[in-house]
Design goal:
The structure is a single chain. The protein has 87 residues and is α+β, with helices and mostly antiparallel strands. The chain has one domain (11-80). Helices cover 37% and strands 25% of the residues. Strands 1-2-3 form a three-stranded mixed sheet. Helix 1 (33-50) links the parallel strand 2 (19-26) and strand 3. The longest helix is centred in the middle third of the chain and has 18 residues, at 33-50.
Length: 87
């Protein structure tokens, strides 16, 4: 039996005509967050490999880092929030 993880991000940001970001926010990290985020990361890799018209990416925003970095722009958000991004 296969288990499918349905990912419904908190926000979807269309930064440009060919750049889309899924934003996941958490005040408190649940036990399933790493699994969901890894699935979203893999989905982005898969869709970007299958096509090149639109680049899909994600950002995980947790409350602790939000207070730490206090981003003023979306670019700052993308640059500073690297949790689950780096292998």
């Amino acid at each position: 039996m296969e288990i499918y993880l349905i990912i419904l991000p908190d926000f979807i940001v269309k930064k440009t005509e060919n750049e889309v970001y899924f934003i996941e926010t958490k005040g408190q990290e649940d036990l399933d967050v790493p699994l969901k985020t890894e699935r979203l990361k893999q989905w982005c890799k898969d869709i970007n490999k299958a096509q090149s018209k639109i680049k899909y990416d994600f950002v995980f925003v947790d409350e602790e880092d939000l207070r730490k970095y206090n981003p003023k722009t979306f670019t700052q958000l993308i640059q500073n929030f690297r949790k689950y991004k780096d292998d």
